[in-house]
Design brief:
Length: about 180
């Protein structure tokens, strides 16, 4: 088994189980699509296949090299974890990174994508450590403009509008602006 240990195998089994669960769940929405001959499950299953290939490749790599750190490689080795910061604030920061996307996803129905996205983006930037207000606002507006440009203008994809009054009104304003912009071209 080379330099494989039990933790490597457990990790691979967990990832393979996740891929299998998602593959089985993909049969729930397996249907034909008029404009795409491979159906609704082609891309999710392709990504799952890539995930399985990465898992297998990782097992082969760990069999040959184990968990030793490589020189010139970016990251942290297991030896460096002993001196890592394990304060309460680091655990809160990690917990925030876990729960913030869940809160964002939950807020999409009542608040809508158009109003929730800039708040989510700004909070992620703050969690990453940026504290200068001008940079937070600037980066948030830049990312928001890219996302809106991609989904509204390029893809013309419908996004959740929200159901609560001020947020729904903002979403309606964004959609009216998009319609007027589309009619210009």
């Amino acid at each position: 088994m080379g330099k494989l240990n039990t933790s490597h195998l457990i990790e691979a089994i967990i990832w393979l189980a996740i891929a299998a669960i998602f593959f089985i769940y993909s049969f729930e929405f397996n249907q034909k699509i008029e404009i795409y001959k491979f159906g609704a499950t082609a891309w999710p299953r392709s990504i799952l296949l890539l995930l399985v290939l990465v898992i297998i490749g990782n097992l082969f790599y760990q069999r040959a090299n184990g968990s030793k750190a490589q020189l010139g490689r970016v990251g942290i080795s297991e030896d460096d974890l002993d001196g890592a910061d394990k304060s309460l604030s680091s655990f809160i920061n990690i917990g925030s990174f876990i729960f913030l996307p869940l809160i964002f996803a939950w807020s999409l129905k009542p608040v809508g994508f158009y109003a929730a996205t800039p708040v989510f983006t700004a909070l992620v930037i703050i969690l990453l450590g940026e504290r200068r207000p001008k940079w937070i606002i600037g980066i948030t507006l830049f990312i928001y403009a890219l996302i809106i440009g991609l989904f509204m203008v390029l893809l013309n994809a419908p996004l959740p509008q929200g159901t609560v009054s001020p947020f729904y009104d903002f979403s309606a304003f964004m959609l009216r602006m998009n319609t007027q912009l589309q009619h210009l071209f």
